[in-house]
Amino acid sequence: xxxxxxxxxxxxxxxxxxxxxxxxxxxxxxxxxxxxxxxxxxxxxxxxxxxxxxxxxxxxxxxxxxxxxxxxxxxxxxxxxxxxxxxxxxxxxxxxxxxxxxxxxxxxxxxxxxxxxxxxxxxxxxxxxxxxxxxxxxxxxxxxxxxxxxxxxxxxxxxxxxxxxxxxxxxxxxxxxxxxxxxxxxxxxxxxxxxxxxxxxxxxxxxx
Length: 208
Known about the structure:
The protein is α+β, with helices and mostly antiparallel strands. The chain is built from four helices and four strands; from the N terminus they run H-H-E-H-E-E-E-H. The model is unreliable at 1-9 (pLDDT under 50).
């Protein structure tokens, strides 16, 4: 949320609530009510920023889990090929790629998901995943071998487990922050009520 417009003072308007709050020096705020309000705003804004960060983290982790599950499903189809062994490659059930670059880009998805760092352009039983042309001027396809595909699957499952664990941790952090924010709000509200009663008592004494 942007801060107030300072154009009347011929000053640039802050771009965010954080920038606006940071323009205050709490050590120079003499009014106790204002200091309480600003302190709460600082705390609330910090919590809000952290919640936004955690929310994005959870969303990103969810996207990664969806991607890993999709790649795993494709591998499982390859593993269902009875002809695939450790010496006879099996091709992933994907439409042929028109270029080498497109095939290579697809294999990078497995690397990004933590399945492997071992991708080859040429057929090799030492590789977990590769891409090749079935003939001159033909399209490109992704291949793997049985042991390699199984290893890829295992690595993807580990990635999914890690993503899930990190997501749960982020959700727990959010819950803890919300609990602390609620407690802080109760504390500030009680403080404001107490301050109000003291002020009213002061006014009543002046009237006597």
